[in-house]
Amino acid sequence: MEFTASAGRFAPSPSGDLHLGNLRTAVLAWLFARSTGRRFLLRIEDLDRVRAGSEAGQIRDLERLGLDWDEPPQRQSDRLERYQDASGRLRDAGLLYECFCTRRDIAQAASAPHSIPGEYPGTCRELTETERAERRSERPAAWRLRTPLHRFTVQDELHGSYQGPVDDFVVVRNDGTPAYNLAVVVDDAAQGIDQVVRGDDLLSSAPRQAALGSLLGFATPYYAHVPLALNPQGQRLAKRDGAVTLSEVGLDAARGLIFDSLGLPPSLAEALEAFDPQELPRGPWVVHPTTVGQEALS
Ligand code: GLU
User: Fold this and answer.
1) CATH H superfamily, domain 7-78+227-297
2) 272 Cβ contact partners less than 8 Å away, ≥ 6 residues apart
3) Quick one: pLDDT band at residue 291, thresholds 50, 70, 90?
4) Which residues of 248-285 are buried (b: 16+ CB within 10 A; e: fewer)?
5) What pTM does this model have?
6) Which CATH fold would you assign to the domain 79-226?
7) Residue extents of the structural domains in the chain
8) Angle at the Cα of 295 from the Cα atoms of 278 and 260, rounded to 5 degrees
9) Candidate from 184, 197, 203 with most ligand 1 atoms within 8 A of CB, to mutate
10) What single string gives the DSSP state of each residue in 81-97?
11) What is the tens place of the pLDDT at every residue in 82-123?
């Protein structure tokens, strides 16, 4: 077998059982990686939102679907030093600054005229050393990127060339924990991941992450942001929608639903043969949990 260092991955947060939409994204990540001769890795993103037992449950469900990976799963909580090294490098390069804003401060500043929704308004960017010393006695600081880039473009298999804003986002939270945007970038680079397949709720995060990666000297991965699963009301599928996990739906039915929604035969081996990213449905997957039926939009 030809060895290639490049890899794809699935990176669940162990906050509960995976639902049909998460499982479908995992299947797609595996198909994208395997159909391009890449290694496939599993990463447990456990820096927050951890529920006891869910890591083991998620791994078991992925295995039941037939997915395999090339290394033991890595856990982010075991890799804190790497994130500290990376944030230290950014700090040494003058690319981080302390931010003392509460959520409320940000919401108030962001409602001012000319502000861009969701973007940090830059309140703490130019604080003087005296001001910072004063604020430090009030509350611990988060560290934000002093972004020199403002916009960044990534290439996405399903969305084409995608450009998005890069604001001064948080890199280290005010409890000292690395922010998700830092951890994901450091891990993808350290694990040789050059293909990122995940739900399209994260598409708008990709320019920020790729920009951060470029400041750390990492190559930008190639992305495929795949459609999310929705409930019949058009909201993101959730566990409260009914029978949506593998144990609730049953393996055969879940497999049938997932592969059918992708227009692929219901076994992983056959699906791999038939897989063509260009043929994937582009709209969200509407799941009807009570009838265990589904339809694809568009
Ligand atoms: N851990 C994230 C989630 O479960 C996914 C992050 C990623 O794939 O980059 O939503």
Assistant:
1) HUPs (3.40.50.620)
2) 31, 34, 35
3) low
4) bbeeeebbebbbebbebeeebeebeeebeeeebeeebb
5) 0.93
6) Rossmann fold (3.40.50)
7) 7-78+227-297, 79-226
8) 55
9) 184
10) HHHHHHHHHHHHTT-EE
11) 999 999 999 999 999 999 999 888 888 877 666 667 789 899
For the residues of 219-270, what is the DSSP string, one character each? Answer: PPPEEEEEPPEE-TTSSBP-GGGSS-BHHHH-HHHHHHHHHHHTT--SSHHH
Whole-number Å distance between alpha carbons of 41 and 150: 31
How far apart are the C-alpha atoms of 283 and 273, rounded to whole Å? 23
Residue 125 annotated to the active site: no
Residue with the two structure tokens 């009914």: 242
Structure token digits, residue 290 = 């009570």
Interval between CA 61 and ligand 1 midpoint (Å): 17
